[in-house]
């Protein structure tokens, strides 16, 4: 009996325990870039390495062995046999509907608590599996008038659930148009059912009926970040708003890497997958390429200490991590590389690939790095729509420094997304403080000018016009 009790105590104490390794010191990425340095030259090569690979098809490092029909698919496989079943427990239903999830009771990376009336309203749709009748009613039989977008996955429609909730209904392409539709659909359902964060689009449910594959998510009405950078919504984003968006995205990806039930790698961080709310807050969307990371999977080299997942390369040209492209080894630092490309895109307003520009400017990240090393980032890289001020120049240089550390040629030298959050917070604080100081100085000058004109009885209108 004593031996049995002792084994039980050992089992209870050891079960469910997950050890997290703290961030390793990374002095390499925290170093300044210098003109003519080896790191700068290496970074030039890494940013351009994808260009030569566009004409070379990538292949996995080793072929997957055939599995017997009786053997279950491993947790790290891209494809699963059928979509997961969510019809268990009120807690899971609340999480799928946007309620308080496990371990998500407020805080920076957890979903906020909701009122009782909101919770009761969400109870009307506890089942995350919709019927075809519900989808057709919500979208008016997929009316072309309700179509709000088109992507690689398929068409997106605006819909309204019976309780009045406005949603986005993603209707997948048919298999003949996209043979990988089932893999992307089930990957998105599997990943989105695990997560909840204020900077991630909310998951409401899905439908799998015959050839139809539908995902129902939160409707974010203000378009994508790329559309705002292209000024398709009638106005451009100020630098302060762009810093806010960058921080929101960094928080969302940090949550995926560190604070979800299991580490998740998005694999497709780009401006067209970032939606903006009416208040210009960012929400990361499109989890069709996402997959579980290596932490806790217990496979690969090193057993439970595996640091990467060997998988087929997926992503968008211009945002792909060159090391992942060459080795097919996926880590969270691949998302960090894509985030660095996104930072350059947000600062410059240019797309990662500009085929209509002259050759030396076609790769935006490489061109921007050259200008930073030459000391011309504020004059030539900053989006022409933005004002050239001292505060803006300082912020742009700091953001580009961070971006190029994110795009380091060796993944171990790149910062974590948590480090990126801290760096961007510091940049935003410095920018706001500088702008506030400049505004206070301008107000003080205006007050002195007004008092001077009142005492002398002269007008300063002409002076201000000349200024």
UniProtKB/TrEMBL annotation:
Lineage summary: Eukaryota, Viridiplantae, Streptophyta, Embryophyta, Tracheophyta
GO molecular function terms listed in the Swiss-Prot or TrEMBL record: ATP binding; protein kinase activity; protein serine/threonine kinase activity
Chain residue ranges for the region called Disordered: 1-35, 55-86
Organism per entry: Triticum aestivum
Example of a GO cellular component annotation carried by this entry: plasma membrane
Positions annotated to bind ATP: 170
Protein name as annotated: Protein kinase domain-containing protein
Residue ranges annotated for the Protein kinase domain, each copy included: 142-426
Source superkingdom: Eukaryota
Bias-annotated ranges (Basic residues): 1-10
SUPFAM superfamilies linked: Protein kinase-like (PK-like)
Similarity remark: Belongs to the protein kinase superfamily.
SMART domains: S_TKc
Encoding gene per record: LOC123129051
Keywords of the record: ATP-binding, Kinase, Nucleotide-binding, Serine/threonine-protein kinase, Transferase
């Amino acid at each position: 009996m004593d031996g049995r009790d002792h084994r039980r105590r050992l089992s209870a104490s050891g079960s469910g325990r997950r050890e997290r390794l703290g961030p390793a010191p990374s002095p390499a990425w925290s170093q300044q870039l210098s003109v003519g340095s080896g790191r700068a030259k290496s970074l030039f090569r890494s940013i351009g390495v994808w260009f030569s690979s566009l004409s070379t098809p990538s292949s996995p490092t080793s072929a997957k062995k055939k599995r017997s029909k009786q053997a279950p698919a491993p947790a790290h496989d891209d494809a699963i046999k059928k979509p997961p079943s969510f019809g268990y427990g009120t807690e899971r239903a609340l999480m799928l509907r946007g309620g308080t999830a496990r371990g998500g009771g407020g805080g920076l990376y957890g979903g906020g608590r909701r009122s009782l009336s909101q919770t009761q309203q969400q109870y009307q749709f506890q089942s995350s599996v919709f019927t075809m009748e519900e989808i057709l009613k919500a979208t008016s039989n997929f009316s072309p008038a309700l179509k709000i977008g088109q992507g690689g996955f398929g068409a997106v429609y605006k819909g309204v659930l019976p309780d009045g909730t406005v949603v986005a209904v993603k209707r997948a392409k048919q298999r003949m148009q996209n043979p990988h539709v089932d893999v992307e659909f089930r990957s998105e359902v599997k990943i989105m059912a695990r997560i909840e964060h204020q900077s991630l689009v909310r998951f409401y449910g899905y439908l799998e009926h015959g050839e139809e594959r539908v995902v129902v998510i939160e409707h974010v009405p203000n378009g994508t970040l790329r559309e705002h950078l292209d000024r398709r919504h009638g106005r451009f984003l100020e630098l302060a708003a762009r810093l806010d968006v960058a921080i929101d995205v960094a928080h969302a990806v940090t949550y995926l890497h560190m604070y979800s039930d299991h580490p998740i790698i998005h694999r497709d961080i780009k401006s067209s997958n970032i939606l903006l709310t009416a208040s210009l807050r960012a929400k990361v969307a499109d989890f069709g390429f996402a997959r579980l990371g290596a932490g806790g999977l217990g496979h690969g080299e090193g057993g439970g200490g595996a640091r990467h997942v060997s998988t087929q390369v997926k992503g968008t040209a211009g945002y792909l991590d060159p090391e992942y492209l060459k080795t097919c080894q996926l880590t969270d630092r691949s998302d960090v590389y894509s985030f660095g490309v996104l930072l350059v895109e947000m600062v410059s307003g240019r797309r990662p690939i500009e085929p209509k520009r002259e050759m030396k400017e076609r790769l935006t990240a490489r061109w921007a790095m050259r200008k930073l090393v030459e000391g011309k980032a504020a004059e030539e890289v900053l989006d022409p729509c933005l004002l050239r001020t001292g505060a803006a120049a300082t912020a742009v240089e700091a953001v580009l420094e961070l971006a190029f550390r994110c795009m380091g040629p060796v993944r171990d030298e790149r910062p974590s997304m948590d480090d990126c959050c801290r760096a961007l917070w510091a940049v935003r604080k410095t920018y706001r403080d500088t702008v506030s100081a400049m505004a206070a100085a301008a107000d003080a000058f205006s007050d002195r000018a007004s008092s001077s004109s009142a005492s002398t009885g002269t007008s300063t209108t002409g002076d201000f016009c000349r200024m």
